[in-house]
Write a structure and sequence with these properties.
- Its EC number is 1.1.1.22.
- Belongs to the UDP-glucose/GDP-mannose dehydrogenase family.
- InterPro entries: 6-PGluconate_DH-like_C_sf, NAD(P)-bd_dom_sf, UDP-Glc/GDP-Man, UDP-Glc/GDP-Man_DH_C, UDP-Glc/GDP-Man_DH_C_sf, UDP-Glc/GDP-Man_DH_dimer, UDP-Glc/GDP-Man_DH_N, UDPglc_DH_bac.
- The protein is α/β, with parallel strands linked by helices and 440 residues long.
- The chain has 20 helices and 14 strands.
- A 6-stranded parallel beta sheet has the order 3-2-1-4-5-6, with helices on both faces.
- Helix 14 crosses helix 15.
Amino acid sequence: MRVSVIGCGHLGIPHAAAMAEIGHEVIGVDLDQAKIDRLNASECPIYEEGLPELLATHTASGRLRFTTSLTEAAEFADVHFLAVGTPIDADGRSYDTGQVFGAARALAPHLTRPTVIIGKSTVTVGTSRDLGALLARLSPAGEDVEVVWNPEFLREGHAIDDTLRPDRIVVGVPSARAEDAVRQVYAPLLANGIPLFVTDPATAELIKGAANAYLGMKISFINGVADMCTAAGADVQQLTEAIGLDPRIGRGGLNAGPGYGGGCLPKDVRAFTASARALGATEAAAMLRAAEEVNESRPTAALRLVEQTLGRPVDGVRITVWGASFKAGTDDVRESPALAIAALMHQRGATVTVHDPHAVPTALRRHPELDYAEALDNSVHGAQLIVLATEWPHFREADPKALAPLVADQVLVDLRNLIDADAWRMAGWTVRQLGRPAQE
């Protein structure tokens, strides 16, 4: 098929490359000419594992190209994916769908034949209904333009794999014709046994919010328990392994750490909380808000652990933070717990140097007040304490003996429970891990 992907960001670029990989002819659309030029030159403006290779392969073959012209996209494609951003609104609780409706308004005059618009962005329930009415009113094709909602469930750092090998595909469809178009688009994946869940549009919109809100609550739950373990002298890692064996609970995502971040979970939990309140589900809203409050407390909890380890406030202390991206596998620093912790320690008077294998440039744009180091060895020179805040394998593989001569004090606070603490202690380091008993 010929498909367009409107919006070339963390969602749109991987989706466009993956659609080309499964055999479609794809045109990506974005307003940023400089970004389009880079993409057509096979230069990826974001880091996502496996994406540069797919981009290079399919731009070279001609199966994937990029443009700023919606007229060109409308003439070319029979199916249009909407993958524009839906940041949190000015109220801090709901989605700003301005880009979604803006893209639809700009595309509508060019839709002269029957077509299907497939929304990928995360939105408030009812958006696809309103978008469908708008397109029917503004498009020459009228009601022959239909809107499907097909929420993404991508894990950043795994976006390509999650698009090509998803655990499920959810589509909210208004008609059998729209469903047939979706089945054609995803036919190569469905042939591999990927389950397709066909629902009404409102259910599809709520499924995405519910999934991310649950993940956020699960993360906040185990982080709250980690605080209890710290207070009791218990071991959150052992606790997690034990309760994770219960099939009703499961081990996946049940990892204590500095909290959830990125472009999806924080805003989705906030927006789902607001939806619950708007729908009159006040008890559900209170439960969701409690999960948010736990997550919001993580930088302060991390600072408390750092200062307990130091035995004094961080004012005047030289601290290295390992990690800038909100998780491993991406250069995305939106709502990054690692950067929130680094910024808080800087505000409290520490001299903070941040190192990340891929996210230093994006972090520098958001937090220019911090110092940065491109190389792991350089990041620790003269450090009195290291904080491990993002779970890159790069940090797990660090050699404590080789790093020891470079630091002022051999002290490490591991907020991800990532390293082999015993090996580091045997090399002379003082190690503290989140939710685990102090051992010297």
